Amino acid sequence: MKDRSMTPVVIRRYVDGVPSDERDLVASEEPMEIRAVTPDATTHSVAVTMRTPGHDFELAVGFMLAEGLIAGRQDVVDVSYCPDPDEIQQFNIVNVTLAPSAGFDPTLLQRNFYATSSCGVCGKASLEALRTFGAATVGISPKIKASVIQQLPDRLRAAQSVFQQTGGLHASGLFTPDGDLLTMREDVGRHNALDKVVGQHAMAGDLPLSQHVIVVSGRASWELMQKSLAAGIAVVVAVGAPSSLAVELAQEFGLTLIGFTKPDRFNVYAGSHRIVG
User: Fold this and answer.
1) How many other β-carbons are positioned within 10 Å of the β-carbon of residue 270?
2) Are residues 229 and 138 in contact, defined by beta-carbon separation less than 8 angstroms?
3) What angle do CA 20, 23, 24 make, to 5 degrees?
4) I need a labelling partner for 153 at 20 to 30 A (CA). Which of 110, 130, 221, 267 fits?
5) CA-CA distance, 155 to 177, in Å (whole number)?
6) What is the pLDDT of residues 255-273, one digit of tens each?
7) How does pLDDT run across 102-130, given as a tens digit for each residue?
8) Which residue of the set 11, 77, 119, 158 is catalytic?
9) At 117, phi and psi to the nearest 5?
């Protein structure tokens, strides 16, 4: 399958007031429907998200894990695009086939997912939902040097190949406490980028990711903190600002939250005990 992460366009560029027609690349954005297929072959529509095509299976698994619909790799038998060749959006539909032991509850689909920014659930209700659905505080987790933290955004940016060509993508990167990049994913949606990282490691059976650090290219929202918590990630480093609810979640569930990270400074909003040096 060809690379669909970028789309060529013709633009008119002005330089010093002089126009010229040129070709350019923009980040692709297309809808993707996630479907859960239960052992009795019943298909349930889970969600539709606007995403940059690529690593779609990881996105589907990561999303379902973050929403509490699956617990890990053991709940997934197969992930595939829509098997119906007559379906117009065949490659924009991902089927996640579940194991009999998955314990999938389709009634959860009747509620608004509290992890999406458009669902309209208030902040306090969102935190209560995490408590209700059994989110736990993180366990043993790594220490990380301040000097390493300051380098992480630049290391993430250096790995963003599509961003370098389009300038239009968010990214999430999973790092070791020593600052080595393990996995990086890009997407027009910052939530999708993190879901893709989590999904890749969920499919590999690597969860929980308690010995790792996640770096996000934008601000730290409640949704990104919730997804990190679901994957067992204790340290979240953001290039931008955190929201008040992100700080509250980090404090309540024992995460380290770092924002405004630059080569010479950063702010710690929760969990400073994990930072040394």
Assistant:
1) 22
2) yes
3) 115
4) 130
5) 13
6) 999 999 999 999 999 999 9
7) 988 887 776 544 334 333 344 455 556 66
8) 119
9) -70, -15
CA atoms within 13 A on the CB side of 251: 9
Q: Which DSSP category does 220 fall into?
A: B
CA of 49: how far to CAs of 35, 116, 155, 226, 276, in Å?
Answer: 12, 10, 28, 17, 39
Residue in the structure block whose two tokens are 């070791």: 176
DSSP secondary structure string, 36-104? EE-TTS-EEEEEEEEE-SSSHHHHHHHHHHHTTS--SGGGEEEEEE-S-TT-TTGGGEEEEEEPGGG--
Q: What tokens were used for 117?
A: 């920014």
CA distance 251 to 200: 27
**Residue whose entry in the numeric block shows the structure tokens 């617990």:** 71
Name the pTM for this structure.
0.86
Measure the N-to-C terminal CA separation of the chain; round to a whole number of Å. 47
Span 127-155, pLDDT tens digits: 566 665 556 667 677 899 999 999 999 99
Does 82 participate in catalysis according to the annotation? Answer: no
Spatial CA neighbour of 187 closest among 28, 24, 46, 9 = 28
C-alpha 78/C-alpha 48 separation (Å) is 19
CA separation for the pair 94, 55 (Å, rounded): 11
Each domain of the chain, given as residue ranges in start order, spans 144-276
